[in-house]
Structures are given as C-alpha cells and as structure tokens.
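User: Hey, my collaborator sent me this sequence without any context and asked if I could get a structure. I don't really work with proteins. Can you help?
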Amino acid sequence: MSEQERIRRESLVELRKLGIDPYPAAEYKTNVFAKDILDNYDSEQNNFQDVSLAGRIMSRRIMGNASFAELMDSSGRIQIYVRRDDICPGEDKTMYNTVFKRHLDIGDILGVKGHVFRTQMGEITIHVKEFKLLCKALHPLPVVKEKDGVLYDAVTDPEMRYRQRYVDLIINPHVRDVFRKRTQVIQSMRELFNSRGYLEVETPVLQPIPGGAAARPFITHHNTLDIPLYLRIANELYLKRLIVGGYEGVYEFSKDFRNEGMDRSHNPEFTIMEIYVAYKDYKWMMAFVEEMFEKVALDLHGKTLIPYGNKEIEFKRPYPRVTMLDSIKEYAGFDISGMSEDQVRDVCDKLDIDHDPSMGKGKLIDEIFKEKCEPHFIQPTFITDYPIEMSPLVKKHRKNSELTERFELIINGEEMCNAYSELNDPIDQLERFEDQLKLSEKGDNEAMLIDMDFVRALEYGMPPTSGLGVGVDRLTMLMTNQPSIQDVLFFPQMRPVASRQSTVDSPQKYTDIGIPEEWIEPLQKLGYTTIEKLKGVDKPGKLANDLNGYNKKNKLGLPGLSPETVSAWLTS
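Assistant: No problem. I've predicted the 3D structure and written it out in structure-token form, which is a compact way to encode the shape of the chain:
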C-alpha cells in the first residue's frame, strides 16, 4: 500500500468518527450538468442561482479561508468556490477546516449546492453554499492537468488504459467521447433499418452447431443436457431461418465469439450487425450499404469526408466495384480464373505466400487477396464475385457458375462488411457443407460443420434473399479515428497478468526435442510455455495450422510446418 493510499484510509476513519458516512445510500438530487452551466450562463441575466450538481474532484487549490476546486460530472468540468463562512456559518468550522481541507482528496465524489458567478479572471464558477461527500476514493488518480480543453500529462500507456478502463475514462474525456460515438454508430444504423420496417431480433448465443462463418469456436458444456455447446461465431443461419418463417427483413446487433488470435483489428469477442432482406440480391445490398455508411458518417460528423490516421476517407456514394479475380490479376500479377487447387498453390509459392496442406482452394485464394490486394484499397471499394470455393453459403453467380454473388466492402485495407445473394437451394447447400467437411478432414479447423436443421429449413423454401454482416467494432474504429480495436471496446480481452509470472521452460528444453529455435517464441506466444503443455497436444495437425497462421499473421517469414513435423516434436 502506498503512502497516499494509507493517508486516504486514515481520512476514511476520521470522517466516520465525525459522523460522516463516506458512502451514503440516499439519492442526491441534481438539477444541472456542468456543460449546461458553461454553455448557458449569462452574468446579466444572473441565471443558475440555485444549482445542485454532483461530480468528482479533479483538482483543488486550498487558500486559507477560501478554496477553489474543479468538479467533473458526465458532461465535463466546472470550477467550484468554497468559502469557510458560507459552509460553516456558525461557530463550528469543522466541515471546512477539517473535512474539506484535510480529509477530501482528488478523486472523491461530491454533491454541491449554490449559485453560479463569474470570477475576476472571467471563469464561470459555482459558489458553494453546502456540500456532501458522496464517495471517498481510496486509490489516487494519475495526475492529469487540463487547461482550455487541452490535456497535459495524459495517461497514454495502452496496457494501463485497457486493463483499468475505469481510470482511463475518468482522466481522458476524449475516450468517453469515443464510446458515445460508438453508440451513435449503432443508433444511426438502427434508425435506417427501422425506417424500412425491418424487425430487430435476438438469436441464440449458445449453439449446438457453430455455423455461418469459417472460424474456430469456443466450446462449453451444458451439464443438465450433457452436451457440448458452442459460443456463436455468427448468427447467419438462425436469421435466415426467420426469413424462411415469413419475416421480410430481420437484423441483429450481436456479440460473436471466435477462438482465434488477437491483434489491432481482432478481439475474441466482438460486435457484428447482420441483416437479411427477402426478395433482394447482392446488387441491391451494395446500394443499401452505400446509403448506410454515408448516413453514419453524416450523423456522426455532419460530412462524408473524415480523417483516419494520416488519410482522409470519403464516404459519399457511390463506391467503386472491382471483382476479386480482377484485383488479383492487377495487384498479384496472375490470372487465377479457371485454375485448379494445385495451380493456385503454385501461384502462392511464386508469390512467397505461406500456406499449408490443410488449405483448400478457397483459402489459398483468400491468402493471395489479403496479402497482395487488400492493402491497396484505401477508399471504400466493393470487391465482388468471389470464387465458389470461398463462399459455402452464397448463391452461384447468375452468369458464371465458378463464382458467387458475394461482395466485401474494403476500406483502408480492411474488410468492413461481407454480403451475399443468399444460397437458398437446399441440395446445393448440402453439397457445399459436404465440401467443407472434406476440408475439415484435411485439418482445416475453420471449416463449417454440416447443419442439417438449416438444410431442412431451406427445404421448406426460403425466398431470394440478400444478407449483410458489418463489423461494428471496425466501423467504430474508422468513424472515431482509432488505430486499434482495443480503443473502441470498453473491456478488451487481455493476457492475464498472472500468466506473465508463470513458469516458462528454457529454450534448451525445446531444442532438446528437435524444435528449431525460431519456432520457440511462436509456441510460447500460443500458450505452450512448457514442454509439459506441449506434450498435452493431441492434434498435431491443428497445432501446425496454428503455428503457420501465427507465422503468416506476424510476417515472420519462416518455412511452413507440416503436421508430420509437429507430430515428431510431440513424440520425441
């Protein structure tokens, strides 16, 4: 315990001895916010003569029989003036001399009542007639100074900010503004959907079969039913069941979960909006997406040209449309249309793109696009007409059966949304699921499972439908000019502090069982910090896939690993 913490605890004891409850239960009625006063006070009108406000002490200047302090409520900061004889009109001066001067600290929460005036320095201030301690803070805040709306000595350490978001929100008002804008993003989208008459719905988070996306799920167990359940990786298949049931348009803002890596644009738990509209196709959906993104920009900023990092992004519609194969031809230099899986694999080799035997043709194409093409699309651009191997839930293209009616919107080199003309042929859908099963047998742990109930739903008949998924976190990053997904999540997933103190085997122990030195750090980053943990792996193919994925994502440039190589490590 620091000296500051000890002193605050001593003050807590003294306050209680004086009969002051440092954590009162009763409601404290307020009638104004700091921003209301600062925006509307008029010295000539002499308004705000009976105000009641509550907030946190952010600074104070003790000057004998009178003092100044600064309170911060949810709207901002305002100065208060506290004079001894106003607070203590009688002989007993304890509330000022002892309570206010000695036992209150920066971070404490106060309720104050009084009138507003302007000081000789011109600062709008509340002249306090009475105050009440509403919460005693036992942990000191980091010292951050603010003058004329500019922060000095702001806390910028991301580790501290993300782990102690409550402190970050107290001392960095611009962070609070980011999360207000996040709510505005969602509200803007919801307004558009509701204006079209689409129904907001809720679908299961716990699912018996994880479907609707190519991703690795989190697995849990239901004790009463004695069955495994999965945290949803997508809500697509349930929403399309509702279209089968007769709704013309449904949407959901949902929390999805994917048991995969974390980086500046990925968090294991994330928010996505999915919407499905009957009797529409992916061309209609492109126009709808343009309208939506333009609306969000206007609602948040009042304009469509907004800054992001050192760039400016223009959201005014329309957006360019480029087919995936054309983009690969332009930026990778290969025409892969009509190529077999082996031929696409050869292209990956020529482009020095990492791949492994578990990857099918679709994943190989995806790797080429992500590495060679995506970074070139800074302004909003629709990438359209994906190869069929990449899109197991999408209707075949009406003019080319090797392609699908799918698009992604790429902005600043990142996927912002994904949309289809939805596959509604149950026989075709089952065949696509069976193709995914073959990929799973090859070791692809992101391949989709067969959902026979969804196939049965399609057999009852689903009208032609277009569906869309938008990453709310990424869209918020873009609209608020934030560089990392952690900056737009209140409580991003973090590596436990305790894990950094856990046992880690020496590099020698890894090399003793034949593991090359360059693979030791990736293994430890994936959680295999001891040989004992590593020996507990029962699926060498999955571990090889994880390591190859880590190698690619972090651009390590290591040669790809085969399941046989990893198996040799585990059995040596």
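In plain terms: The chain has a mean pLDDT of 92. You can pass these tokens on to your collaborator as they are.
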